[in-house]
Every structure is written in structure tokens, then in C-alpha cells.
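User: Could you go from structure to sequence for me? I need the amino acid at each position, not a summary. C-alpha cells:
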């Protein structure tokens, strides 16, 4: 495990983007596992800036996303398909046919989960998986539970997760209660994992995840067992660690 401290969100984003850009340069046809939410926005903006300067080429990169809300079509402005197009895909030279997310409108959840699992295997597995950390320790939408889920599955979101996500929806809009997510096994099969965390409100859960017991009641704790985990976090998020 490698832990890098950043002064603030901007420096955290730049350090994390450096790691992703190095992966693209070393292996131009790499498979990136991507995440949504507010935390990676700065990372994506930095990658876009480097692309516009001619420093990065996304033309052979493939991507798979961690999750998608169940019931939302790709064109819905609250879908993760839309999020990724707006915040990364439409601003770089990536091939839209090699950007993959679960289909939120799939009629059969089990079939869709199998399809997404098989797709990840068919494109060679994930070279680098980007992760954020939920307030309750979830990664992707793997919520605290009695056992670690394996492959892609459909989950009922915890109330705390729904409330956290509600800030991204307009007043009166219904926040989806279910989502498709890569499972813990799929995430752990990634060759490299990059965990990014920002803010004092994440300090306690980050410390527990990386130093406490490995338990499905704190899904991110499983990351302690990954052979190539890099954590990039700001000073506030790392306030409970003794790191210079």
C-alpha cells in the first residue's frame, strides 16, 4: 500500500491524474476502471487539460465504470452515462464504442450483471481502477453487509448513500434506490487500484478502512489485501494518520 498526502483537493486531483496518465502512457490500450461523483471531477479536468495540451492520447483506451443507477436511461442527466460523457468522454479523443457502463434500463437485472461481468473479462480485465470512498465505507455501490459481494450485482442503496447522492438531484427529483455496481471480487481483480479521498468528514472512515479489521461491514477495508493499492488523499482526509 502506498499513501500520498496532498495539501488540498486540487493537489490531490493532480497527483491522482498523474498516476492515471502514467498508466495511459505506459500502456496506450489500457483498460481504466472509472468512478463518478464529486471526488474524481478534478482528476478528469486535469486529464482533459493534459489532453488539450497534447500530452495524452485516449484513442486506444477502454473504460469500464463502477456503477449505474437502475432505471435511468443513458440520456438522463442524472445517469452516470451522462456524467461521464459530460465530464470526460466528450472532451477527449476516446472512442465512444469502447466506453462501457451497466445498462440502467435493462429488463432483467441478472442478465445485465452477467453481461457486464463477461464484458470486463473479454476486454482483458481492468489495468487501473479508480475508486472514491463513501461515508459508510462503501466502494462502488457495495454497501456494508454480511458478506462481500462477488461480481456485478444490483443493490438496494443504503439510506445514507441516497441522502448523500440527493445533492446531485434537483429539488423534488426522486433519487434512485437501486443501482448496478461492480462487486468486490471484480474490483479486487484490477491490476492496480487508486483510491482518492478528500475532506475531514472522510478522515475517520478512511482510517478505519486502511488500519482496522477487514470486514464486509466496512467494504473498503478489503482494499488492505490488494497487492497494488495507491491512496491519494488530502491533509484533511489523512488527519488521523501519522504521515509527513
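Assistant: Here is the amino acid at each position, in order:
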Amino acid at each position: 500500500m502506498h499513501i500520498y498526502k496532498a495539501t488540498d483537493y486540487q493537489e490531490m486531483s493532480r497527483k491522482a491524474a498523474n498516476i492515471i496518465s502514467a498508466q495511459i502512457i505506459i500502456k496506450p490500450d489500457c483498460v481504466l476502471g472509472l468512478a463518478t461523483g464529486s471526488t474524481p471531477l478534478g482528476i478528469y479536468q486535469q486529464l482533459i487539460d493534459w489532453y488539450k495540451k497534447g500530452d495524452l492520447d485516449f484513442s486506444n483506451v477502454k473504460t469500464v465504470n463502477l456503477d449505474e443507477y437502475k432505471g435511468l436511461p443513458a440520456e438522463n442527466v442524472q445517469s452516470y452515462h451522462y456524467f461521464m460523457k459530460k465530464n470526460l468522454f466528450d472532451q477527449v479523443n476516446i472512442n465512444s464504442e469502447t466506453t462501457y457502463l451497466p445498462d440502467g434500463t435493462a429488463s432483467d437485472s441478472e442478465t445485465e450483471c452477467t453481461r457486464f461481468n463477461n464484458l470486463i473479462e473479454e476486454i482483458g480485465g481492468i489495468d487501473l481502477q479508480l475508486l472514491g470512498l463513501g461515508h459508510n465505507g462503501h466502494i462502488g455501490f457495495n454497501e456494508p453487509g454480511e458478506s462481500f459481494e462477488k461480481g456485478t450485482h444490483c443493490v438496494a442503496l443504503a439510506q445514507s448513500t441516497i441522502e448523500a447522492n440527493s445533492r446531485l438531484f434537483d429539488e423534488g427529483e426522486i433519487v434512485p434506490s437501486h443501482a448496478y455496481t461492480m462487486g468486490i471480487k471484480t474490483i479486487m481483480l484490477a491490476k492496480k487500484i487508486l483510491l482518492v479521498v478528500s475532506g475531514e468528514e472522510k478522515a475517520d472512515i478512511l482510517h478505519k478502512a486502511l488500519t482496522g479489521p477487514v470486514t464486509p461491514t466496512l467494504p473498503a477495508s478489503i482494499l488492505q489485501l490488494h497487492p497494488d493499492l495507491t491512496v491519494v488523499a488530502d491533509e484533511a482526509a489523512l488527519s488521523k494518520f501519522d504521515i509527513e
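One structural detail worth keeping in mind: Residues 9-26 form the longest helix (18 residues).
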